[in-house]
């Protein structure tokens, strides 16, 4: 019976066996023999329980269904295989076409390589021809140099013979030749300058002139002695007075000459002076903003040459804002918070232009006035009356200038009024106050004190007279 079950179960597929095992809640892992053995044991257990016949029938039906599904899968697999074969045939055809195209490309590449090789050969031939011409030119140049050396030697021999003939004895000729060679050893080789050097009078920056001098000296190829001669000959005015302080043996020493000029006109000596100028620098009445900014930039470079660029720019902007004369422009610059001097100058120029434009846009309207015929005498009298009022007002202002703010009464000793305005009686004045006033005045009393000139009473009189010849005559009298 067990063999019968084994033969019937061996006909089932692995999938059917797994389905049967999963239906019985048994493990489905392992080989087919393991699955058959596991299912057989389960069937035997079921048969022992009395239901083996029914399960076998169901197993046959399931095996038939599994066989049908297997046939369907095999047919689908055959379709896929046919599709794969057709795709492989297409790929083979594409490979053939690609091979033909690659062969054609290789042919073209070979043709291009052949053309390139021919061009390279032509280039190599041209280079060889050029090298041959260069070698030929170098050979000619060497021949010319040899001829020049030979000609130079012949000329030296000829000059030597002529100079030897000019001396009476060979000893004199040898001594002169030795002196000439010794002098030529210590004489500097002066190159003819190809760039002009500007004079220096001490009014401009020595650092700028020193830079220009270095550029010209390098371009002309001057040695130290030539530089010293050129620098000494270019000094003018106050700068030329430096030559008096340099010893005679240091006149041709470029370092000594430049050190003396640096000490007199260098930036180290001008640093403190430039800072003082920056602190007191203000815009002049006819000075533009550009001129003020240029001067402040120059002074800041001299005063703060050791500081970083950002710090120097910040200080220059601050001094520029403080030096602007117009209060409105200065206020606008403080509110703008500019970072460098150029931006501050541009902002100030724009603000100034806007101010001028707004001032030009203001149009004043004249009022209509009706002229009437007036009496000349009345007009003159009106003018005189206005002049009299003006003089009276001016005299009152002059008198008011000399009035004391802390006026003290000489009668009662109180402040705030004078003696003529005092309303207190003589017998009601306190003795203590009188004693204190006496001590404050520093004398035994107030008797004999004179009024100051500005408190003396005065009066003014305007005298107007008329005559038939000259018209009206006015006299202004002031009496004290």
TrEMBL record:
Superkingdom of origin: Eukaryota
Ranges of biased composition (kind: Basic and acidic residues): 61-76
GO molecular function: nucleic acid binding; zinc ion binding
Residue ranges of domain SAP in the record: 9-43
Start-end of Polar residues biased regions: 421-441
Keywords of the record: Coiled coil, Metal-binding, Zinc, Zinc-finger
Residue span(s) of domain CCHC-type: 408-422
Record region (Disordered): 46-76, 421-452
Signal peptide extent: none
Coiled coil (UniProt feature): 113-161
Presence of the UniProt keyword Ribosomal protein in the record: no
Name by which UniProt lists this protein: CCHC-type domain-containing protein
Organism: Argiope bruennichi (Wasp spider)
């Amino acid at each position: 019976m067990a063999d019968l079950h084994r033969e019937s179960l061996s006909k089932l597929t692995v999938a059917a066996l797994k389905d049967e095992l999963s239906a019985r809640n048994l493990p489905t892992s392992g080989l087919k023999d393991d699955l058959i053995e596991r299912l057989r044991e389960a069937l035997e257990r079921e048969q022992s329980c009395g239901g083996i016949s029914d399960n076998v029938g169901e197993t046959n039906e399931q095996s038939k269904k599994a066989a049908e599904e297997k046939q369907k899968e095999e047919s689908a697999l055959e379709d896929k295989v046919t599709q794969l074969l057709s795709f492989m045939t297409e790929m083979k055809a594409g490979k053939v076409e690609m091979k033909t195209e690659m062969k054609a490309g290789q042919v073209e590449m070979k043709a291009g390589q052949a053309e390139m090789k021919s061009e390279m050969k032509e280039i190599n031939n041209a280079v060889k021809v050029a090298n041959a011409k260069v070698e030929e030119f170098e050979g000619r140049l060497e021949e010319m140099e040899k001829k020049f050396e030979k000609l130079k030697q012949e000329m030296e021999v000829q000059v030597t013979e002529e100079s030897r003939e000019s001396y009476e004895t060979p000893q004199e000729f040898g001594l002169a030749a030795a002196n000439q060679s010794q002098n030529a050893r210590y004489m500097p080789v002066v190159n003819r300058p190809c760039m002009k050097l500007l004079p220096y009078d001490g009014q401009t920056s020595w650092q700028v002139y020193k830079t220009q001098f270095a550029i010209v000296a390098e371009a002309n190829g001057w040695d130290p002695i030539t530089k010293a001669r050129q620098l000494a000959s270019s000094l003018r005015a106050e700068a030329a007075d430096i030559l008096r302080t340099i010893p005679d043996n240091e006149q041709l020493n470029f370092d000594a000459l430049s050190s003396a000029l640096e000490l007199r006109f260098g930036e180290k000596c001008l640093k403190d002076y430039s800072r003082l100028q920056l602190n007191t620098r203000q815009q002049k009445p006819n000075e533009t903003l550009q001129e003020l900014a240029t001067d402040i930039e120059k002074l800041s470079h001299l005063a703060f040459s050791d500081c970083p660029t950002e710090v120097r720019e910040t200080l220059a902007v601050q001094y520029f804002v403080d030096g602007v004369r117009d209060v409105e422009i200065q206020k606008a610059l403080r509110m703008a918070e500019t970072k460098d001097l150029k931006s501050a100058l541009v902002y100030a120029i724009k603000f100034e232009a806007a101010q001028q434009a707004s001032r030009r846009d203001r149009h004043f309207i004249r009022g209509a006035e009706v002229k009437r015929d007036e009496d000349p005498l009345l007009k003159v009298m009106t003018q005189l009356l206005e002049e009299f009022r003006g003089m009276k007002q001016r005299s009152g202002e002059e008198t008011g200038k000399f009035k004391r703010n802390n006026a003290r009464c000489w009668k009662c000793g109180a402040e705030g009024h004078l003696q003529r305005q005092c309303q207190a009686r003589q017998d009601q004045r306190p003795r203590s106050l009188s004693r204190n006033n006496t001590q404050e005045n520093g004398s035994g009393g107030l008797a004999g004190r004179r009024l100051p000139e500005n408190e003396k009473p005065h009066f003014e009189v305007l005298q107007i007279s008329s005559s038939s010849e000259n018209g009206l005559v006015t006299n202004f009298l002031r009496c004290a």
